[in-house]
Amino acid sequence: MRDFSKWISNFRPSIADFSYYTDFNKVYENVNSMKIELNILNSLIGSKNIELDFENLVSKYPEIIKCIPILLAVREKEIYAGKQGNVDLYNFNSPKNTIDEYKTFLRETGLFDLLSNHIINNLFDYVTGVETGLDSNGRKNRGGHQMEDLVENYIQKAGFKKNINYFKEMYISEVSAKWNIDLSAVSNKGKMEKRWDFVIKTDNNIYLIETNFYGSGGSKLNETARSYKTIATEMKTVKGAKFIWFTDGAGWKSAARNLEETFDILEDIYSIHDMENGIMNEVFR
Prior knowledge:
The protein is of the alpha/beta class.
């Protein structure tokens, strides 16, 4: 019997690599896609009559409209805005609003003031900063992908070959069809379509794998633990398949009780420490 307290004591505070914090290639790509339009908008910086100058600029270069949302750190091209609950829809995919409506938008959001009072010097540099900030929202997804990449690396080290005897992101229906296995106990009799992070097929078994890493706490961890506890219980009735969960992260310390409940039911729950100590070769036979 494994000791839960000892097991969780080896959880890592982070698995962030150097690319985790900001994907600068994506930042540069996004900014360069607007480079010409941003340089045109630069002519408004320091304008003494910015509303008239903006109107003239849009009449000559209507494509600059599409850059306005990113100046507010917004990616959407259709934005609702107004006062006291009375809002209008502003479209920035193309100039569908009137020029007066666009001027109202820039005036009320403070963009005219930002530009005319020379608070910034260059919109290309400004948007690079905005995109860098927005890219930080992707860290949660990158963290999840880093755990997937780590697990996949250990799967490969154990000798498995992608799309030959291990597969990435397979749905329950795909697994059932490919190997003629009944997974209705997990799919609520075919009503739920779950996707597994990895599936490993050996001569003796099919392994259905989930991976995640939580560097910080939150309600999501309790939901995940309860969900996987249910899957572990359901999988006990399935012949020819096993559920494997690779998880880690100091965030679990705040949800240790729920994780321990799953740990007590699910035999095949492993951490990075387990992978480092050769668990792949012991489990997948």
